[in-house]
Design brief:
Helices cover 67% and strands 0% of the residues. The protein is mainly α. The chain has two domains: 54 residues, Homeodomain-like (Arc Repressor Mutant, subunit A, Orthogonal Bundle); 127 residues, Tetracycline Repressor, domain 2. The longest helix is centred in the middle third of the chain and has 28 residues.
């Protein structure tokens, strides 16, 4: 009897399904059986196509950042001022995290929740990704201080950490059921604390 060929499936559709499962349940809370059911493949096909659960998750996070979370990379790439960048990051998070067509919050933030000690590497990987964004934001804020966009006494590290804390907090609030309108209001309140360069004496006289 002729042996049947390898099972074929839509790899991108399978990754989309895995993304939603990890996003909803977190890394530790997601089982192989949940993944195979959502991805509509059997365990041997999952391992053959994606490696193990850990490798699949890394691919999912990369895909998330290139799709659902792309608003952050786009903001860093397209905004020329720190003020415009932070406005876009915060309001983009408010619009995205409770949007309704996908699990709430940010996968990179939420998937690390309740990880067991055995999954510490996953938590570290996600923290490294979040910290890289904070460090990049800090660099942009430092540039804005040097250029005169922001006051000279601005604490670049503290301000970057504050912005990240606001965004992470909005992710958790969305997970807790807060809607987009409320998150937008939170974002606007946070932006009112953004430092502004005081007007010069000449500017005040004008």
């Amino acid at each position: 009897m002729a042996r049947s060929g390898p099972r074929t499936f839509d790899r991108d559709a399978a990754l989309e399904a895995a993304t939603l499962v990890f996003w909803e349940h977190g890394y530790s809370g997601t089982s192989i059986s949940q993944l195979t059911a959502a991805m509509k493949i059997n365990p041997p096909s999952l391992y053959a196509a994606f490696g193990d659960k850990r490798a699949l998750f890394t691919e999912v996070v990369n895909r998330y950042n290139a799709t659902y979370g792309r608003f952050m990379a786009d903001a860093f790439a397209e905004e020329t001022t720190a003020t415009g960048l932070v406005h876009r990051l915060i309001m983009g998070a408010a619009e995205h995290y409770a949007e309704g067509s996908h699990p709430p919050g940010c996968l990179v933030i939420a998937a690390a929740a309740n990880n067991s000690p055995g999954n510490a590497e996953v938590s570290i990987e996600l923290a490294d990704r979040r910290n890289a964004n904070r460090d990049l934001l800090q660099s942009r804020i430092a540039d804005a201080i040097r250029s005169g966009e922001l006051p000279a006494d601005t604490d670049a590290r503290g301000l970057a950490t504050y912005v990240v804390a606001v965004i992470q907090g909005m992710s958790q609030q969305a997970r807790d059921g807060v809607n987009t309108e409320t998150l937008m209001a939170v974002g606007e309140m946070a932006l009112r604390t953004w430092p502004v360069q005081p007007m010069s004496a000449a500017g005040r006289r004008g």
